[in-house]
Design brief:
The protein is an alpha/beta fold and about 260 residues long. It has a single domain, classed as Glycoside hydrolase/deacetylase (TIM Barrel), CATH 3.20.20.370. It is about 40% helix and about 15% strand. The chain contains eight helices and twelve strands. The strands form three sheets. The chain has a seven-stranded mixed β-sheet. A three-stranded parallel β-sheet has the order 11-1-12. A two-stranded antiparallel sheet has the order 5-6. Helix 5 links the parallel strand 7 and strand 8. Bound molecules: zinc ion.
Amino acid sequence: MKLSPKLLLRFDDISENMNWKFMDKCELLFDEYNIRPLIGVIPNNQDSQLKSWPSKENFWDKVRSWQKKGWEISMHGYNHIYRSNTHGKDYFGYGGKSEFYGESYDHQCKKIKLGLKKFSDEKIKIRSFFAPNHTYDLNTFKSLDEHKIKYVIDGYGLYPYKKFNLVFIPQLFYNLKILPLGYQSTQIHLNTWSEKDLIQFENFTKRNQKKIICFDDLLNMPLNDKEFLIHNSITKITLKTLRRIRRFFKTNRNFN
Ligand SMILES: [Zn+2]
């Protein structure tokens, strides 16, 4: 099956406290180019680093206005507080700190439930989730399924795929990239941007306007097509190996 490459714009770490100057500029750009990104909102942000940003009054009105425009609002963790370190044993093998990995099923369920309640109180519809730092274990997936969240915006592969009764939309790179094939998601951390990064993002978006897809378009994708699964396996093996090698060298360097 031949499909032209597409990219979903996934924004991370969206909460009351963030770089609103850059977010407002992105919103103007998206309005002008008719782009509908996926916005990862932290329902109960307690992350002190993020909290150091200025707070937005009427934050939830803003989120509702994005939803009204057809932007997809996604749940990004619950409070963005890391409680464990996966030491590379998390489901995707990223390693590093985690809000969810290693917690009991009941604890993870409670967090997902509380997050969903906040969104529901604010009249925001949630269909998808992605964990802080890409770190999950099987209980995370079970908890998401239990709470009828069907989509995870993370994972290896060139195309979305179905597993554990969930649909995974692959997220592969830290920087902005469109591969010559496949449907994936990017990750955007505008709180870490400089003015130069903003300009680069604006130019990338304008240049690739036709390849940037919205969440609803992704849902019409055929899933687990045989050819897609082969592409996904090759990508997974390659990227996991590259990450392992990078982690190995990083660890050894730290011992010097
Ligand atoms: Zn995050």
